[in-house]
UniProtKB/TrEMBL annotation:
Limits of the Major facilitator superfamily (MFS) profile domain: 27-433
Membrane-spanning residues: 27-58, 64-88, 100-121, 127-153, 165-187, 199-218, 252-275, 287-306, 318-337, 343-370, 382-403, 409-429
Protein known as: MHS family MFS transporter
Record-linked PROSITE patterns: MFS (PS50850), SUGAR_TRANSPORT_1 (PS00216), SUGAR_TRANSPORT_2 (PS00217)
Keyword tags: Cell membrane, Membrane, Transmembrane, Transmembrane helix, Transport
């Protein structure tokens, strides 16, 4: 126990250069590459739900209804993310961060690869979409635990003045995974339509197996978080983490969910619904996927810059700036998407995801700094994954409903109202840049 305490004290005295040590570089690489692989799998499904699944798994339905049904399977994965955050957060807070990360990666890899070999509706009928939904739930369950573990194992070993940047490596996995998934699907979409819908879309899903092996090799070399090691001998911190979050930290949990929704509604609105709607209005699907590659690069760059700035100025000012930009750009983005023009869609998605990166960069550290070490995995995971389920999971369905009811103007008004609520929650939430992780209660 004395050794554990000493390790924790040493952790809190890390210097500015600690991010450059071999072990810290390995931790950041594991956080980034592992998350990139997990989000490659998760976002690959999102792109395929917009372009493929309505034709393959819901071919008996009217095209408009098939699109909604495809988005419903997408939402199933987002609904499963909070459950993954709760279950994996429980074990991550009680047994350690590292072991959870290995399990989530294996689970995600198996689920994604199996999607690549599913039979179609024409082959087995309703069993095909049922199997698709089941595997999507497995994906959501796995990524629900991945994000919290990957983020915390970096944040809890970083010096206080670098926590925002270190934690962002888990978030940077999202745009990196989007780049890889959109690029892979775009490559195979160059095939004739019949071949692409028959077998071409399956190859990117099957490729997940190889990526998972690479990620596991890196992840197994990472050491456990010293803050968790220091905590592990304290009996009072070993209770059920979820109950402690709900009873002792309900306010910051709700605030965390609302703030995270600001970023995740952009993802669901532009990257998923926008892709489907733009192509239905005449935009070329391959061009749209290529645009998503460049938009993910924009998000990657702005997320890095925003994370760096959050270590200097604080999490709240940077996230607030991103929310304000999102409010200003809401209507222009929807008008560009609804035009059906290739370059207008490209402009909308690149700018929107660039803005999304401004919020995404500091978000991991912001959420982690709301909760004490004993429940940090559970609290931050439930906040982020709860926001994912609400903000990204149901946004495509709700967006389609609003457009059908009143057009893009009604959709834009609803989106702005949500962003204003998120911004209000941000102003109420505490700033965590200068908080000592070991003393948060």
């Amino acid at each position: 126990m004395m050794s554990s305490t000493k390790n924790g004290a040493n952790q809190r005295r890390l210097t500015h250069d600690s991010l450059r040590t071999p072990q810290m570089r390995r931790i950041l690489a594991s956080s980034f590459i592992g998350s990139a692989i997990e989000f490659y799998d998760f976002m690959l499904y999102a792109a395929a739900s917009a372009l493929v699944f309505a034709h393959v798994f819901f071919s008996d339905l009217d095209p408009a209804i098939a699109t909604v049904a495809s988005f419903a399977t997408l939402a199933a994965g987002y609904v499963a993310r909070p459950l993954g955050g709760i279950i994996f957060g429980h074990f991550g807070d009680r047994l350690g961060r590292k072991g959870v990360l290995v399990v989530t990666m294996i689970t995600m890899g198996i689920g994604t690869a199996l999607i690549g070999v599913l039979p179609t509706y024409e082959q087995v009928g309703v069993i095909a979409p049922l199997m698709l939904v089941s595997l999507r739930v497995i994906q959501g369950f796995a990524v629900g635990g991945e994000w919290g573990g990957a983020m915390l194992i970096a944040l809890e070993q970083a010096p206080a003045g670098k926590r925002g940047f270190a934690a962002s490596f888990a978030n940077l996995g999202a745009p990196a995974g989007s780049i890889l998934s959109a690029g892979m699907l775009s490559l195979f979409s160059l095939l004739p339509s019949e071949q692409f819908l028959s077998w071409g879309w399956r190859i990117p899903f099957l490729a997940s197996f190889v990526l998972v092996l690479i990620g596991l090799f890196i992840r197994l070399k990472v050491v456990e978080s010293p803050l968790f090691v220091e905590l592990s001998a304290k009996a009072e911190e070993r209770r059920i983490p979820l109950l402690r979050v709900l009873t002792k930290s309900p306010r910051v949990l709700i605030l965390g969910v609302l703030v995270a929704m600001s970023q995740l509604t952009i993802s669901g609105m532009v990257s998923v619904w926008g892709l489907s709607y733009a192509t239905s209005q005449g935009a070329d699907s391959t061009f749209a996927l290529d645009s998503k590659v460049f938009s993910a690069i924009a998000m990657f760059v702005t997320a890095i810059l925003a994370a760096r700035l959050s270590d200097k100025w604080g999490r709240r000012p940077v996230i607030a700036f991103g929310i304000i930009l999102a409010i200003i750009f809401a209507y222009p983005a929807l008008l560009l998407i609804s035009s059906g023009e290739n370059w207008f869609f490209a402009l909308a998605v690149v700018l929107a995801q660039g803005i999304q990166g401004v919020i995404l960069g500091p978000l991991a550290a912001f959420l982690a700094e709301l909760f004490p070490t004993g429940v940090r995995f559970t609290g931050s995971s439930v906040a982020f994954q709860g926001a994912s389920a609400i903000g990204a999971g149901f946004t495509p369905i709700l967006a389609s409903t609003f457009v059908a009811a009143g057009g893009v103007m009604l959709l834009g008004a609803a989106w702005i109202v949500v962003l204003v609520i998120c911004g209000t929650a941000l102003l109420i939430a505490p700033e965590g840049r200068r908080r000592d992780l070991a003393t948060i209660s």
